[in-house]
Fold this protein.
Amino acid sequence: MEINNRDNNRPHYINPYLGGVLLGLLVIITVYITGRGLGASGAVKSAVVTTAEAITPAHAESNPYMSKFTGGDHSPMYNWLVFESLGIFFGGLLSGILFGRLKKIRIEKSPKITNKTRLIAALTGGILFGIGSQFGRGCSSGAALSGSSTFSLGGVIVMLVLFGTGYAIAWMFKKLWI
Amino acid sequence: MKEELFVSGRNIPNIDPYLHIWHWQIPLYLYLGGLAAGILFFASYYVIVGKEKQMQTTVKWATIIAPIALILGLGALFWDLKHKLYFWQLYTTVRFTSPMSWGAWTLMAITPMSIIWVASYMREMFPKWDWKFEFLKKFEAWVIKNRVPFAWVMMALSIILGVYTGILLSAFNARPLWNTSILGPLFLTSGFSTGLAAIIWLSKDEHERKALSRIDLIFILVELFLIIHLFMGFLASSEVKAEAASLFLGGEFTVIFWVFVVILGLVFPVILESLELRGYHIPAWLPPFLVLLGGLVLRFVMVEAGQITRFLY
């Protein structure tokens, strides 16, 4: 079996340039099948709104942002982005199995930092990204990828700002990563 | 003046036009019944073919789930009853034309048999176990001596139990979604597949897991085949049946059925189990978990959707 001959200590990933081309093709297929683009942050938003609605219904209703997504015929979880994310999870799992990355649960990081640093930094970054994506009306999938593929100026701006800022300030935060 | 008096049997709250009497208890019971039937079937099968030693988890450890599932399922069924204290009246008659009568009598036999089965392996599983009383020890010796005939009876009963969980619904001729003879085999296959999944989850023996995975693959494929034929049958039938099928083909149950039952509960486990048989490393709990979840959702969807299908008038 080919997989067993590989060096299993390091995870195997696809070539990033090939991955980028595949992502672009995925957007075309998604638009063809569903009539709209991809997204990822929307599913998290649905989960947040559903949780808020379950715990404090009054607050969710009175909050001008969350109330936009509540009160429909279906739960906010009945949203194609939620199912798309479920697909991403299982698709990623399948990819991990096929390429032998799923031997055991591990935290991917540089050996110079601790697990704790990595997890706290990742969580903080994730929260900031979530807040930012809602101000920017979409994340790297919904706004940058799907947006720019329709030649939307907003999508192109998101793409430039998102990766530009990341590129510009990466040096300052390198100790949280490498 | 000529008065006309209309008497209509159509306005029956909770029964007509939509049935609204079965809640979570019934699908949970059907699921647990099928699960127990699957576990007991394979335990008996491997005793009959004399592979007790190779299939330790199937024959011994996993069977502990069966009586627990049966008792919890019967508890849910009892909870659902309106007149709880009249349940014993089921046992005052034997009616071959009534699936409920079949089910009641089968459960009356298979539940104690599953307990006896587990009890007869107690000393093997827990060497320090002691039955204390002489008559219990004698009874244990008798069961161990007659294990194969016992297994034959239990295997037959487990098939009846598995089929009955589907026939219970298909005997409702007023509900087009349920009124199909495919439901019996479909629920039997699904029950056996969930039973296998539970055993695979528990088993630590690589050979046993592989042997069971192969059988589970066949059962899942048969289940997919039955689901396709279920819908083909509906669509080729009268308008009401086509309308019942449309609940799953664009209607309100489309997403939950195709995503959770078919894709995650059947297709994905088939892919994972085939990869596992080819030597890929798969988290051991994942395929069985998905099969068990898919089976549970199937019962809930079928019971829920069936209640709102009806004959037009």
The helical segments of chain A are 2-5, 16-34, 41-55, 57-62, 80-98, 115-135, 140-149, 153-169.
